[in-house]
Write a structure and sequence with these properties.
The protein has 17 helices and no strands. The protein is mainly alpha-helical. Keywords: Membrane, Transmembrane, Transmembrane helix.
Length: about 400
């Protein structure tokens, strides 16, 4: 059951990666289809993460009565159908409704996916969270590739989206039969949380790390192409490469990251990730040309990729009796970072310089080093990097039906 539960959850991460990439990489086409002005576009773009935050807050309350597996099972189809609605709508009101549904559902989906991932990691007794996020990156690469095909062949948005939804939606529904829910873990001596709730003061360091990580991520996704073309003088074609390189190196880093956590512990891996990411921003800021700039974006992918999965895992460890609530609350800061990152870099770039703007996320990522001890596992505190399995939890779970 655990293997099927892990595989079905991994497919859910993959599906969400592909779905989200299909939306964000076709924003220019969506703008053209609906005639959204440049002034109005930021309103639409900001509404999605804001509503996702609302969805995540709602999930924190819902999981007190409904298993996370059920929330994930039904929020994922809503996300995919909302994507199809974005592609098939006929006017701006329909676009607004589809994006609102997408935002609210994606907040519930992101939170419930990571709840189940943390629960499975606890049951396995070793680090597996990075593998789920690696599959998300793989889905993102597939979605971005399919979006490129649609743009290259000038396909209507609904024509690009329909085959993907038609394949992934029923597959996700079938796979959801094997989601594994976990019961709250017994609270160990010295644990910060209890079944009574989440102490925000204790969670705050992880919220800051999540925010800073997504400021870095949104900087790459929103500004890498412009930076390479306008600052480093690359061709328009070459300017599309850094984000793809970033996604590939994110996939590679997450694919091998769990082994590092098992061998050395979460704290050294998080510290190394922060240092590598900061080095990437420094290289980008100082790059004399496009190829050196791409080397910097490569380092960014390898460094930033470990921070978010380990932040979710750390929240589960800090609040073993209330991990679902902690993860739902932490997930809000995913969207906070996304909202802050792009406008922050843009404003600094216009007022100062884009090279200088790259130093701001560099400093913010380095702040992670201050909070690295919040990622410590129980075995880290007592010496050694290996996480020990909870034998009482093995075999625990439900198919969520």
């Amino acid at each position: 059951m655990l293997r099927r539960g892990r595989a079905s959850l991994a497919f859910s991460f993959f599906t969400q990666g592909a779905t989200f990439a299909l939306l964000v990489t076709r924003i220019p086409a969506i703008q053209d289809r609906y005639g959204v002005s440049d002034a109005l576009l930021p309103v639409f773009l900001a509404a999605v993460p804001i509503l996702a935050g609302v969805g995540s807050v709602t999930t924190e309350q819902l999981v007190k009565r409904i298993r996370p597996s059920l929330l994930l099972r039904w929020s994922q189809p809503v996300v995919m159908l909302a994507l199809l609605g974005v592609g098939a709508g006929g006017n701006m009101a329909e676009l607004a409704v589809s994006l609102a549904a997408f935002g609210l559902a994606v907040g519930a989906l992101d939170a419930s996916m990571n709840m189940l991932g943390v629960s499975l990691q606890r049951t396995y007794g070793r680090s597996i969270m990075l593998s789920f996020h690696a599959v998300y990156s793989l889905g993102g690469i597939l979605g971005a590739s399919l979006a490129w095909v649609g743009a290259h062949w000038h396909l209507a948005l609904w024509v690009s989206y329909l085959p993907v939804v038609a394949v992934l939606l029923p597959a996700a529904l079938v796979g959801s039969r094997w989601y594994v829910d976990g019961d709250p873990a017994p609270v160990e001596d010295g644990a910060q949380g209890s079944a009574g709730g989440v102490v925000f003061k204790v969670l705050l360091p992880l919220c800051l790390v999540m925010t800073f990580a997504y400021i870095g991520d949104s900087t790459v996704s929103n500004w890498s192409a412009k930076y390479l073309k306008d600052v480093l003088g690359s061709s328009e074609q070459l300017a599309t490469v850094p984000y793809n390189v970033y996604m590939v190196t994110t996939l590679v880093g997450r694919a091998i990251g769990d082994f590092g956590v098992r061998r050395f512990g979460a704290v050294p891996v998080v510290r190394l990730g922060a240092l590598v990411a900061a080095a990437g921003f420094a290289v980008v800021a100082a790059a004399p040309g496009a190829w050196v700039g791409m080397a910097g974006f490569t380092l960014l992918g390898l460094g930033l990729c470990v921070l978010v999965p380990q932040t979710f895992a750390a929240a589960g460890r800090l609040f073993p009796g209330a991990s679902d609530g902690a993860i739902a609350r932490l997930n809000i800061f995913n969207y906070v970072g996304f909202l802050i990152g792009s406008p922050l870099v843009g404003a600094l770039g216009d007022a100062w310089s884009y090279r200088g703007a790259m130093l701001v996320p560099m400093v913010l990522v380095l702040v992670t080093l201050v909070y690295a001890r919040s990622f410590a596992t129980r075995s880290d505190r007592y010496g050694g990097g290996h996480e020990r399995p909870r034998t009482a939890d093995v075999g625990r779970g439900s198919n969520g039906l």
